[in-house]
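Hello again,

I reread your note about wanting to compare the complex against the isolated chains. To keep things tidy I'm splitting this into two emails, and this first one only covers the full assembly. Below are the input lines as submitted, including protein chains and any nucleic acid or small-molecule components. They are followed by the predicted structure of everything together. The single-chain runs will come separately.
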Amino acid sequence: MNIITHFGKYVIMLKGMISKPENTKVYWKEFMLQCNDIGVGSLGIVSIVSVFIGAVSAVQTSYQLVSPLIPKTTIAQIVRDTVILEFAPTLVCIVLAGVVGSKIASELGNMRVSEQIDALEIMGINTKTFLIMPKITAALVMIPLLVILSMVLGIWGGRFAGNASGILSYDTFDRGLLLDFRAFNVWFALIKGYTFAFIISSIPAYYGYHVQGGALEIGRSSTKAVVVSCIMILLSDYILAALLL
Amino acid sequence: MIEFKNINKKFGDKVVLDGVSHVMETGKTNLIIGTSGSGKTVLQKCLVGLFEPDAGEIIYDGKSFTNMTEDDRKLLRQQIGMLFQGSALFDSMTVEENIMFPLNMFTHDNFVKKLKRVNEVLDRVNLKEANKKSPSEISGGMKKRVGIARAIVLNPKFLFCDEPNSGLDPVTSMVIDKLIKELTVEFNITTIVNTHDMNSVMEIGDNILYMVKGKKEWTGNSKDIIFSENKQLNEFIFASEFLQDAKSLRMMEAKAIQKQ
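Full-complex prediction:
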């Protein structure tokens, strides 16, 4: 199958997903379950990654700024902007593409192979609406929240590492944080967060939903889903940066 | 009653169903039999709408399923129950939740009423104690019975069973066959069973459709099979010497009874 065929089937899947739920209560429960899986389930890894990227960026920025003419507050500014603009939305979403994306693809793939999706179809349930829509909406709600959390933890990680390694004090870091702060950067990160959330949930859902075969194909589609999601994240990251900055 | 006329289905250049027509009767266990690759499963999937036939018409109780809108099909599907070959139970749910799922989706009953119905169907399939178990904790035979319980929980008018005996020991197979037969008569439903289990054919075959290479080869009931002179059917049903001897014995008995 070529890219155009895949894209066509992907669009048809998204179109087929938009229909009236058979029972809003059951769908709401499914949505909450997905929020828990995608959001709460990823809290640990997001927190760890965020703190460390913030810490590393503080130490490495200090290592590169050798000129005594550049004030220490610049380190905080660089940590702040790199974390908000790039690390929190993009890096965290690439990690989430692995964690959440592979889970979605393998879960749906397993349901397809074991005829659970057919069983739902026979019951008269729109499987695209029931299985895919809650995942995408949950990702759209939870992933931007994770991005915000990542920004906070990343900056905190930089602040902590800067102080712990004697690069700059908490006061200097806090002063740097407020210098030339642009609120638009946060909005830009959130726009990225929403775009990546859609990619992370819909592409693996497509690959999982259309699995044919057995366990081997589930593994392959899961890997493919993560790879394609990562490429699409990087591509849309560039497009958004070129358009909005 | 389900009637289908001239069903054709191709996958690429391969013809899987070639003008198959038949009537599946209400209150009877209608069997689709044939060797692997004869088109049984594809026919059943066409009947429930999982595959769209290339040509032909499917009629459920006088209403054309082929020409129905998607919304009408959804409504009709609430009257269809299906037992899958691998049971297709939802892994993330317990036995009770699996059976309650169609009730949650399509009824507005309170929890107590739904639980009562779940216990009724579990009792009907002789699985009283399994409510809180997960599908991974129960045996293959139990999974099939849970699958049947889930299929009948909404009181369907049509029950489809895809190879209900596959992977089961002969005793459990007979239990499942007996259950399918009893439910069919008790609730006067149209049951369609895909099988190549000869025990099932002889025990519950009220109306049998024998398929060869996507075509209808023979129809009749389990008694007709004994006297059938269709070479392909005889080779398929009485494949072993033991079964051939059993057939000869049954024929001799029948002739003796006729003479008396």
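For quick reference: Chain A has a mean pLDDT of 94.

B.
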